[in-house]
Amino acid sequence: MQGDGGRALRCGLAAVGLLSALSAAGTLFLLGQWRELSAALRELEAARPQGADSILRPLLGPTAPGAATPGAARHKRSHRGAGARGHVRAENDELLMMMTYSMVPVRVMVDLCNSTKGICLTGPPGSPGPPGLDGLPGYNGSDGIPGIPGPKGEPGVNGRRGKIGPKGDPGEKGEKGDPGELGSPGKDGMPGGKGSRGAKGDKGDANNDVISDGAKGEPGPPGPPGPQGPPGPPGKRKAKSQVQENMYSSKCTGETCAIPNDDTLVEKAHEKTNGYHQKKAECIIKSIGSPTEMGKIQQTFGTWMREPANRSDERIWLTMHFSGNFIKEYENANALLNDSYRIINLPGIFYGCGHVIYNNCLYYQKGGTSIIVKFELNTASFRTLTIGNALHDGRHYLFSNSKTYFNVAVDEKGLWIIYASSIDENIIVAHIDEETFSVVQHINTTYPKSKAGNAFIACGALYVTDTKDMRVTFAFDLLREKQIDASFDLRSAQSVLAMLSYSLRDRDLYTWENGYLMQYPVHFDS
After folding, report:
1. Helix, coil or strand: residue 248
2. Which region, left, alpha or beta, applies to residue 118 given φ > 0 means left and ψ of -120 to 50 means alpha?
3. CA–CA separation, 461 vs 445, rounded Å?
4. Is the dihedral angle over the CA atoms 65, 70, 71, 74 positive or is it negative?
């Protein structure tokens, strides 16, 4: 390794020495040339007479047609000829052009041109050369003085919403606001569990305001033989038939003739003429015929009504569901089938399925209250009537199957309102004066609402169905305030019976059964 390093060093020194020798030789050559040129110029200067400039210029000018100008001739370059001696060659017989690329001091060339007095002529400036290479970047300067702030710019676009900040301190409690409007009733909740049995109450006093006839009991066992009577007069003996007095024409079983509050009834096993006359036969319903379907609505609960006081009025009104704030009015039965209707908004929320149309007025319960509203369809005006001591909220329904607290009815005897007493939960019927919209009389049927599925009024008599709405099991004469003997099958289907109403218009029953609008013919005794 040391031998190779020494050999390279010697080679480097030898190259440097050779270059130094070549440079020195070139310098000596240039000095020799400069001396020769200087001598030649001095001889020319000495030999040139006065006005030699005019002679010298043609000699320095172009020598042939089409030759370049003196300035251009100085820029013309030629390749080194093989016959040129050194860097000087003959351009022609009279002029010489020096061609050299050797380094000459600037002072020497300046002295040479000054001594020639015009021989070294300056030509016109040449065209600009190409731009040089970019220099190195300079050093960063210091920051200048800040300028004057510019005018305020337009507001920019809102940025993205930031993250939610920490919860602030609670503010001061505000004042209590006004109570809001009554909302629509919510859905029925799940039935609660059976409560514990309450303490036995005190025995009440007998109430003889309304005395109902008791149901016929089962025949009792034969009694013991009585004492022998006195001998009769001689003659033909006849068997004396025993006549059993019967208040009713049919045998009652089960719930059909069940009468509540038995401890308040007066036993009348052998009632004779007492001022009470049996209701006219033509006003007691004997049976119900096969129904006719009027339409189908996609609602489990609802009411459909027609005007009973005007048979020429073919309009049909519908309420959807058991709660709402409007009714639908159809022009006729065809419009009902085509679902072509107009909306009539009500001044409040109705509740239940016990509404009725009478003399162009809609009667309905105002939701959450014991108020009955009389709404005039043409003028949209309304009146209200409050029913006291009536169950009207808390799901303490008059008829649970139809979610109804009040059932308004119209028959041959006028306008009625069926409701449940908040005192003993018995079914009460209020007779209403239509013109004054006031209660004429409250009639207590003493029949508990817990045994009723639905009810309707026809010809002054209340008819109540069983809890499954399959059969009429109780009837009550509202005019004479007496129970009457009437029981018959209503229908065979077990669907939800949301509405049951007697129509004075055609003496039929209107029902809403799981969305089906049905019409039943009524057969009275004749």
Report:
1. coil
2. left
3. 11
4. positive
